[in-house]
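Encode chain A's predicted structure.
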Amino acid sequence: MRIAIINVGASAFRMYIAEFLRHERALDFLIKPLRIGKDTFSKGYISLENVKKSTEILNLFKLKLEEYGVTEYRALCTSGVREAGNKDFFLDYTLHNSGIKLEVLEPWEESYIKYVGAKNSVDNFEELEREGVVLANVASGNVNLHATLKNRVVFSGTLPYGSLRLRQMFKSISHMKRYRAIQEYVKIMINSVARAVESGTINHLIGAGSSINMMLSLFNLKDNRIHLNMLQDIYEKVRTLPLDEIIETTGLRREQSSVLVTTLITYIELMKLVKAKSFVFSRDTFPRTMALYYTGKIKDTHLSDRAKNTLMHIARHYNADTRHAVWVNCFARTIFKELSDLHSLENNMRFALETAVVLNDVGNYISDLDAAANAFNIIKAIQMPGIDADIFQTAACVVFEANRTPQSVPPGGYVEMMAKNPLTIRKLAAIHRLADSLDAARNRHIKRISISVSDTIVVTADTVREAYLETYAFNNLKRYFAETFGIGIELKTRICYE
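Encoded structure for chain A:
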């Protein structure tokens, strides 16, 4: 099959056309510079002139699609369009005047695709992850940072520190002093990462993104590794030079030269963060990475394990009772599996349930009062590459719904989120409530459960002693389950002497 990926970036339009049979065969790669991000980051919108220029480029791309007989394509926009005040107008105008349907790539998805791409193109990536690594995709609009340690995410974010963005922010400052302002601003980004990771746990840096093309033009590299002293040497030469002299000194194109200082500062500060003398990088372009990703040629093989490890990391961060969470999660998974014919929920909702169970107590970190509302606000704000943001919004609603009382005041956004899929949230909340009741005393008296279904559902629990609190809590909460599913549920306990 043939596929094309069009990437509308902040500084250029790119298109990658490839054929995928047994192997990938690249057919064409086009780059058309157009700094729509310059408009977005300075004015807040894309000028009509650049909207029309964008349409002209897309029409050229359309001719290429026809030339290669490509009918399958994805055309994806990043920060230059995503943050524009007239985004909807841009998408509508280009569609009607070129026939190319553009989509806006959400920050979490952009970050995740770049992560999966680097993971599959950099040697020994998983080994570096175990030792602690920051993946930095430095582009024109944003910097995507993804820090992992021992198969858990410790930081992930799409941050507004792209090279073109910073160039526009500080363009009014003299070139003699501009580097200082950029350096101070980049350190804010560095500090946000430093607060999320323990000192000394992150040991490696991996670079990716359009900035790597600049590095390849700047340095005569024999391998995929850049050394700190190389960056510092060129930085000392160009940091106070005007643009024309940077072009003359480096031999870079004007577009690259204009963002060279900001790019160098970003990488130098990131290397200081991880205390690295060098970093490896991926040569893959974002359009090619997207082509591999959307055709399933590259995958994230440990997403499930990493996601679960990350949830436990978040729970510990908020001093939640993780032993209780693990125990309840076993019950919740059993109920979800055994009653799959009853609840008819997709498998991704199991992860939403697990998220709600593991993070149920995080709101207590802020205050015992309104703990459920606090937990709702924490969970809905989670961004985890590879996991749709809707999953966390669902989990946040489940936690509040499962713990709410008649006196509870719904937190901001709860009513709107609940309205999207109220039945799904009620189903998950009903399972969550019963699973939590099975360890009401938080002493793991109940060791295992089995479930049978006839006129009523019977949960049989094997215990090490009388489960008074668990029985009391279960009986108090079972009405909600019956009202949701239309069938009664009972708990039977039996003491097992092992």
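The mean pLDDT is 92.
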